[in-house]
Amino acid sequence: MTNVSEYWHHSGQPLASLAFAKQARNSGIKRLVAAAFEDETDPTLASLVDEIVWLKVGQLAKLIAVFTDRQIKQCVMVGQIAPKNLFDIRPDLRAMALLWRLQQKNAHTIFGAIAEELKKDGVELIEATPWLKR
C-alpha cells in the first residue's frame, strides 16, 4: 500500500483526520492526498499531506476525480459531516443520481452508495480503523 489516499468527512472529530495522516505517514505511506470538505476539515491537515483538494459536500464527481485523476486506488473515510452541513448540500449530477437510486436515505446507505461509486471508478474504500490504532 504505497498509494493510500485520505478522504475525510469530519467536523466533530477533527483530531481523527490529523491522527490518521500522522499514523499513515509513520507507517511508511509515501503519498497522502486529502479530499477535504469546506467548513469541515481542519486546514492544519494541509501541512501533513502531499496535496489537499477542497470540496463542498455533495460534489461526488469531483471527489471521485480527486482519486482517479491521480491514479489513487485506495481511500479511507475519517470523521463525519456536521449535521448543519447536510442540510445545505448542493449535490452534483452524480450525487443526485446516487440519492435518487436509494430507497432509504441514511448514513449507512449513503456512505455505502458512495463506496460503490468509488468502486465503479476503480477506487477501493478501505477501513480506516487499523491506521488509527497503530
Distance between the termini: 15 Å
How helix-rich are the residues, as a percent range?
40-55%
Please write the string of helix (H) and strand (E) elements: EHEEHEHHHEH
- Record the strand order, biggest sheet: 3-2-1-4-5
Low-pLDDT sequence parts:
6-12
How confident is the prediction overall: mean pLDDT? 84
β-strand amount? 15-25%
Provide the structure class.
alpha/beta
Oligomer: single chain
Main sheet characteristics = 5 strands, parallel
Radius of gyration equals: 14 Å
Number of strands: 5
Principal-axis shape: globular
Features:
134 residues, alpha/beta, five-stranded parallel beta sheet, 6 helices, 5 strands, 40% helix, globular
Written description of the protein model:
With 134 residues, the chain is of the alpha/beta class. 40% of the residues lie in helices and 16% in strands. The longest helix has 14 residues. The radius of gyration is 14 Å and the shape is globular. The two termini are 15 Å apart. About 5% of the residues have low confidence.
Summarize the structure.
With 134 residues, the protein is of the alpha/beta class.
Element layout with pairings:
Layout (H helix, E strand, L loop, with lengths): L3 E5 L5 H13 L6 E5 L13 E5 L4 H9 L5 E5 L4 H4 L6 H9 L5 H14 L3 E2 L3 H5 L1
Parallel strand pairs: 1-2, 1-4, 2-3, 4-5
